[in-house]
Amino acid sequence: MTSVAEIKADAENSRRWGWWYVAELRLREMRGYVSYVVTSSFGNPLMYLLALGVGLAHLIPAGIDGVPFLVFVAPALLMSTILSIGAEEGMYPVLGGFKWHKIFFAIHATPITPGQIVGGFLVHLTIRFTFTAGVFFGFLVAFGAVPLATGWLMIPIAILGAFAILTPLASYSAGIDDDRGQFALIQRFVVMPMFLFSGTFFPLSQVPDWLEWVGWVSPLWHATQLGRTVSYGLNEPLWLTVTHGGVLAAYAIIGAYLMHRAFVKRLTR
């Protein structure tokens, strides 16, 4: 029989390490789709690099902005991959935790707080993003697309970029009762335009003037430009580089605040 002292000790551990318990739970849940995580982590970068970075590069022998096309596009491929995962994780997994399997309610029935649930959710994704970005970066180094010395900085940049899109979407997903096509609309009218018009395959300056605003508000463009800066030394004003980091941090911080507030409201109503 469990003693009162043991129950109190368990409650105290939950209050102290609740965020890690949530992260551990989600990492264990990944065992159900670990083959997808591993396959996508290895298959996607190889496919992108062969089809776009190598195949398409032969059609652009002069490169872009004075650098080979593969070098130019490599940071964008890494960023778009991680940010796309971030967008996915901010939608159905969040709504599912409240509506279908209700795991967030089950966790909240313990001494674990909504803030710890959010923290554990983000810690788990940090681990996943790091793994996928690390594998992708390894392929980029093997293809000679990025330098090892400074290129590794693209990994934390990609993680910050993923949180910049994940947390606002998660705050929205936590506040709705059902998906009636909203997520499909977000994919088509937010995620896809972000991928197409964020300077991924060509400089943003080549986008029509009336579409340039998409890049300026897009976390992907800011993350990609930072990635190019640390990868091959993109020549741009210092104020613009600082702006890229500031925009990503603002999206992530404000989004995390809204996400926490939405979780608290949903779990305590």
Major sheet characteristics: none
**Structural class, from helix and strand content?**
mainly alpha
Helix count, DSSP H or I runs of 4 or more residues: 12
User: How much helix is in the residues?
Assistant: over 70%
Structure description:
This protein is mostly helical and 269 residues long. It has one domain (19-268). It has 12 helices and no strands. Helix 3 (69-89) runs antiparallel to helix 6 (114-142), helix 3 (69-89) packs parallel to helix 8 and helix 8 packs antiparallel against helix 11. The longest helix has 31 residues, at 238-268. It is globular, with a radius of gyration of 20 Å.
Question: What's the quick description here?
Answer:
The chain is 75% helix and 0% strand. The chain is mainly alpha-helical and 269 residues long. It has one domain (19-268).
Protein topology:
Layout: H1 4-29, H2 34-55, H3 69-89, H4 92-99, H5 103-108, H6 114-142, H7 148-151, H8 154-174, H9 182-196, H10 212-217, H11 219-232, H12 238-268
Summary keywords:
269 residues, mainly alpha, 12 helices, 75% helix, globular
